[in-house]
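Q: Okay, next protein. This is Glycosyl transferase family 2 from Salinispora arenicola. I've checked the sequence twice, so it should be correct. Can you predict the 3D structure?
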Amino acid sequence: MTVPDVTVITAVYNTMPYLTRCLTSLVEQTIGRDRLEVIAVDDGSTDGSGPELDRFARLYPGTVKVVHQPNSGGPAAPSNRGLELATGRYVFFVGSDDYLGPQALQRLVTAADRWESDVVLGRLVGVNSRYIHQAIYAESSADVDLFGSALPWSLSNTKLFRRELVERHGLRYPEDMPVGSDQPFTIEACVRARRVSVLADYDYYYAVRRLNARNITYRSRHLERLRCAEELVTFVAGLVEPGPNRDAVLLRHFTWEVAKLLENDFLQLDRTVQDQVVAGVRTLTEAHLTDRIRDRLPIEARVRLAAARYGDTDHLLAVIRQDAELGIPLAVIEGERWYAGYPGFRDPRLRIPDCWYEITDTAADWVARLDTVSAAFEGSRALLVTARSPRPDLPELASSVRLAAGDVTGETLSTVADATGTTVRARIPLDRLLEGAGPGGELRTVQALANAFGTTGAAALRGARRPVPQRAVLRRGARLHVLTITTNHKGQLVIAVAPVTPRRLMARLRRRLPLGGK
């Protein structure tokens, strides 16, 4: 019996109709079905995913293998079941609502064989405005260092793994983690690998944001996420010795998994949950957040983590409300040193060291911080944005202030200072927003760019406090696009650019029509 070059494992739970495209993209891979094994583990689906898997197994009996099991509550158990059954030289994991570029597996296996790599990343792109961190895909490289690159920011399991490595070290997914269970697997694989490589020359993997947004990641609760963050941080601490290498990985976890527990939606939690989250975050920061990590954290995350570590729930709520409801705090300037004037700064009761608030090295970025006053479409031509800085001296500090959506810089119409701050108005052309939009759409964060202190500071524009999403439909060639102005989970102003597809239209109709479509 011929050993397949690659086994693709997909954990399936209620992902119709996306599942069909996923499976089709697998059986049509240019590597050929004789070199491919697909193991799909149905984790108790109730939406027709099970019968669809069986249909593909009947159509491709030598390639597609299906396992049905009761629902386990997350992707870890079905992924482990797939690993038990895999026979390929390599294994590759794909989300059952995602899909691959036609040449993906052939290119990945070829590179792994040529470079003798144990782990190979192929460039991921987002679909339906799903955000994918792109830094690791800046260029192809045969050797990528986990600790000296952007790899810690791309720790999903959507990679090619040498199965001999997986089995030699007994790598498996922790089944008690409903969220993020792929990260311990991926981190240890990268630590144990002789070589990790990256390919940036092709769109290998299309990561889909479901239009109904019902998967477990979107639905997970704060206490579940806290427990998973605790497991991740503890796992890394047990795997990597203390020092710069451990900090390089933990920086990602404190910036994302831990700090995201303290975003603006923290305000809506029950007080008992808030207290438990604060206690958990305090324990993590006291045990594992080093000075090296602290100094590399974004200022918002830093002051919120400081509030949880040194203060109490009420103090953290005051810090979050400053961002979510009151606006940008003024900077405290002492000679050449700048500090963010958040609640708690030099409060003798809290005794939080000044270093948690210091922004001296990023003062230009702080000058670029603006609040959105209004954002509206000017017909189909432009987006008009009015933003406000709390600094009356902004024109003196910055020789110019511009607004940009992603890489599209707008035209500054006016910069007007008064006794309480400075107002900036800009026009961003919509046609240029469509130029770089891929087939899956784009999510562009609106940011301010300020030329100050001999450099260009940049900061995401904070969205309106009571955002009302606005939409416009634009045509580019034969294709229509929907542009939506809204705010993201961080409270930042964003523009979602998405092509109009039959699937998107049907999803929108289902949301608007009652059951039965009447």
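A: Here is a summary of the prediction. The chain is about 35% helix and 25% strand. The domain at 6-215 is CATH 3.90.550.10 (Spore Coat Polysaccharide Biosynthesis Protein SpsA; Chain A).
Q: Noted. On to the next one.
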